[in-house]
Specification:
This protein has 5 helices and 11 strands. By secondary structure, the chain is of the alpha/beta class. It folds into 2 domains: 65 residues, no CATH class; 151 residues, 2-Layer Sandwich (Zincin-like). A 4-stranded mixed beta sheet has the order 1-2-4-3. Helix 2 packs across helix 3. The structure holds zinc ion. Zinc ion binds next to loops.
Length: 236
Amino acid sequence: MQKAFRMKYGNSVIQYCVSLQDRKSLSISVHPNMIVEIKAPLKATRKQIEKRLQKRAPWILKQLNYFEGLQPLTPSRKYINGETHLYLGKQLKLKIRKSIQPNVKIQNGYIIVNTNPQHNQQQIIHVIEEWYNIRAKLIIGKIYGEMIKEFHSKKLIPRAFQIRKMKKRWGSCTPGKKIILNSELIKAPKNCIKYVIIHELCHLKYPNHSNKFYQLQSYFLPNWEFWKNKLELIMS
Ligand SMILES: [Zn+2]
């Protein structure tokens, strides 16, 4: 288990792990899970490491910002019977049936899709995606509605709110104070959805990822790191 260190750079905080190795030079890598990893020679001191980090900080922050976009990775699905699909963090099996009463429902660990007997594969996929979309608007909207109260009491009030499919982000807070959440979040556990909502709402106060931003985020969700990691794990 590597220990994580924190280093201040301007308004930002860079968290990094060090592994000391039998090597001559120091290397820095930023991983998609937001871990900044330093491989350093056995004799390297913390001071030497941080000096190098300060120098490389603009590049590190750029990488972190890029990964912070938390690009959702949606594995390609075939939408066939028995295939598993995520819903609120649970793996559900798909059961597609022809029926004169088309609908989609969740039952005993299955997503049961009753489709029109005339529907082709493309139309079946459309029905399932549409169902996910409706559930996303309903459930994410409800969670957002619950969370927003706390922010309102702190005078943090967004101007608009939207749930839609986004390719590269889980959420965003625009300079015009509009909160946008990715409808794909419906596949993640409820607390991961909460984490994304809190993260974006905290941007109403701090548009950056400064120390103060993280303090505010921890105030609203003390164990946010756990849910952030979970989101990345489950959705990758
Ligand atoms: Zn952010």
